[in-house]
Amino acid sequence: MIVGLAGTWGFWLIEVCESVGQFALMIKSALGWILRSRVEWRQVLIQMQRIGVESFPVVTMTTLFTGMVLALQTGASSNALLNEPFFVGTVVGFSMVMELAPVMSALVVSGRAGAAIAAELGTMRVTDQIDALYTLGTDPVRYLVIPRVLAFMVMLPILKIMADFTGIFGGWAIAYFKLGIPTNTYWHDIFDYMDVDNFMHGFLKSFVFAFAIAFICCFKGINTTGGAEGVGKSTTAAVVMSMTAVLVLDYFVTAILVAFGIT
Amino acid sequence: MIDAVGVRKGFKGRPVLRGVDIIVEEGETLAIIGGSGCGKSTFLKCVIGLQRPDEGSITVDGADITTLKEESDIAHYRRRFGYLFQEAALFDSLPVWENVTFGLKYLTDIPRSRYRKIAADKLALVGLKDIEDMRPAELSGGMKKRVALARAIAAEPSYILYDEPTTGLDPIMSDVINDLIIDLQKKLKVTSIVVTHDMRSAYKIASRMAMLHEGKVLQVAHPEVMKISTNPYVRQFVDGLSEGPIKMRLKEYELPEDEERS
């Protein structure tokens, strides 16, 4: 029994190591194509539309309500402690720009566009379309992965900036209409304390998240096995892994940025 | 000429090809026949470099695919091949004409302005007209196979590899595909390998046949010789009998999806 268990764990460990190696090779290959300027720009534009433009409504909706909730909770807590809703704009602004906008937009886009990427590439794998690319002289990394990675890295930071605005706007709506905070006070609460570093903190996070989500979803899709069931499994795995990666990377990127004084 | 010597390939410790030796002469059509899971498709994928043999060599016009390491060298090696996939493998997101001319951008220096004309010409060669702007989802199974065939010949390869070209088609459409394979062989003077378990198709199109069983070549011969083969395995297969030395133990044929589909 012990031998059997060791064998099972051994095979599992080998598979994990193989996957990590293949993942690293895919990133290396993608960077190689990009450095040689062999990019399918038409595909990049198509993916920017699918990943970015089509995600805009859902990112807007989620971050709008996140900003509203933040303002409401901050106002309520402040009221309970000080009988006045203090620093609502500051809390909403800092939270959105540095943390919630990059993380929320990354989670929403990985659930929407990341799942679509894994399912599309997975279907291409199980229907031999990936092999067909090889036989037609194309590297799937060049034709499929790079356009998606570049589109993610352009569009996610843009969505993050949109999310900053919609979250802060949602906060203002609650601050003004529900908590009775004058508009000027709300904006002063934000801009009296915020500087470019705070914005860059969240903006840089978006790039890292985009890189991770795009490569994880492409990798899971391209390495799909097992027909329709396999496509479902790899899509689920892609979404779970990319969302987990966003939350884990969030800590480490924050720690690095704090260490470099970008706060 | 394609010269495969001692080709071995396994997946997760399970051998699929156990030392395949096959020579495909210039201009001939070799049909590789055999039951499901015997390694036919795996061999074809080894020939075009989609899978790397564990042992042995596959030499095409002097170039041995098993010695090529760089992806650019393998891509260059693949230029001489056209490949027809079992399920056609057309790109769903592209119209028919872009599917047909997809490889031209990467395999040739032909200017993009000529692509539509080339697509129309290649589609005409496989008996299709006025479907250039349709999407693969709008095509029937037979039409998809023919579009895939047009795509395989678009870059004018020296070799065409067919993976189960008649699988999933009705008998009439199967015969149309068989006629097309013969017709293309005559017009384009290509060398072809056809993997099939459709004996009617194999007899019609092949100049020679090779029977593969459990990853080994049992017999290579002219179709007429195959018909009267004394090898009991070959006899059972070409006659399509359930009784004989080939035991259909289902467990034996259970393979991961991506390894063996024929």
What is the radius of gyration of chain B computed over CA atoms, rounded to a whole number of angstroms?
A: 18 Å
Integer-rounded radius of gyration of chain A:
22 Å
* Mean pLDDT metric of chain B: 89
Distance between the termini of chain A: 53 Å
Structural class of chain B: alpha/beta
What is the averaged pLDDT score of chain A? 94
Strand content of chain A: under 5%
The computed structural class of chain A is mainly alpha
Oligomer state equals heterodimer
By DSSP (H or I, 4+ residues per run), the number of helices of chain A equals: 9
Query: In angstroms, what separates the terminal alpha carbons of chain B?
Result: 24 Å
Low-confidence stretches of chain B: none
Helical segment tally of chain B? 10
**Mind summarizing the main beta sheet of chain A?**
none
Question: What does this protein look like?
Answer:
The complex is a heterodimer of chains A (263) and B (262). Chain A has 263 residues and is mainly alpha-helical. Chain A has helices spanning 2-35, 41-51, 56-82, 88-126, 129-135, 140-177, 183-191, 196-222, 227-259. Chain A contains nine helices and no strands. Chain A is elongated, with a radius of gyration of 22 Å. Chain B has 262 residues and is α/β, with parallel strands linked by helices. Helices cover 34% and strands 23% of the residues of chain B. In chain B, the strands form two sheets. A six-stranded mixed beta sheet of chain B has the order 6-7-8-3-9-10, sandwiched between helices. In chain B, helix 5 (115-125) crosses helix 6 (141-153). The radius of gyration of chain B is 18 Å and the shape is globular. The mean pLDDT of chain B is 89. Classes of the chains: A mainly alpha (263), B alpha/beta (262). At the A-B interface, helix 4 and helix 5 of A face helix 2 and strand 6 of B.
